[in-house]
Specification:
alpha+beta, SMI1/KNR4-like, 2 domains
Length: about 240
């Protein structure tokens, strides 16, 4: 977390990045300038690369220019400030639609203030940009204030489940390709524990395939994050 932004810093940010920040965002930054959040689930009206009906938000980005400069790197950088917007658009090839405002738990996506409709001085919408889905843009809220108010604790969220369960079939009847597609399908709908189970059962058979290790690592990572979030460990509160 950085110190609250001064009027001069806000003016510099607007002049350099070319966008006026929402009043609700600036008010929040004066209370707590960026950081991890407790209410980190945001329901969505459509599937994303994270889950079938929601995203998980890891942190709200602050205004710290110095912090962003220390962390951002073309290959290994991590976005932790709105100043990181130029980093992700230049090196990660995200679309130039506005300012990055929050960081999801998923490393393959980011949350932006979208100024395409309102212009650089208007009230931007909040969108989810998924680089794993060819930078698909999912609308989240009509304003930053509505985005913050729409965040809920994970324990209060009851997500939708697919109406029809995946038909696995007997393992002996499934080809290697089918096994990997099955695990990938479970990951995409948020059934990370099930994906791990499917892959672990076929470790001896599929360990030759690089995609096996990719999907297993992905499922284990998401499952670990899911458990950590539910226990609220390693999370700081943003009031």
């Amino acid at each position: 977390m950085c110190n609250p932004p001064t009027a001069e810093e806000i003016s510099e940010l607007k002049t350099t990045l070319g966008y006026q920040l929402p009043a609700s965002y600036l008010w929040l930054m004066r209370q707590h300038n960026g950081g991890a959040i407790h209410r980190h689930v945001f329901p969505t009206g459509e599937p994303t690369g994270w889950a079938i009906d929601h995203i998980a938000v890891g942190a709200i980005l602050g205004t710290g220019k110095e912090v962003a400069a220390k962390v951002d790197h073309p290959e290994y950088g991590s976005a932790i400030s709105v100043w990181s917007t130029s980093f992700v658009t230049q090196f990660r090839k995200y679309p130039s639609i506005g300012l990055m405002i929050a960081e999801p738990v998923a490393s393959e996506a980011d949350i932006f203030l979208d100024y395409r409709e309102c212009g650089p001085t208007g009230e931007p919408k909040v969108v989810y940009v998924d680089s794993d889905w060819h930078f698909h843009i999912t609308p989240l809220a009509d304003s930053f204030e509505k985005f913050i108010c729409g965040l809920i604790p994970e324990e209060d969220f009851i997500g939708e489940q697919p109406e029809i369960e995946l038909k696995e079939g007997p393992p002996e009847d499934r080809t290697d390709e089918v096994e990997l597609h099955l695990a990938d399908a479970y990951i995409k709908v948020g059934f990370y524990k099930k994906a791990v189970s499917v892959l672990e059962e076929q470790r001896e058979r599929l360990s030759y395939n690089p995609l096996y290790h990719y999907h297993l690592g992905q499922a284990l990572c998401f499952f670990a994050i899911e458990k950590a979030c539910s226990r609220r460990q390693r999370m700081r509160c943003l009031h």
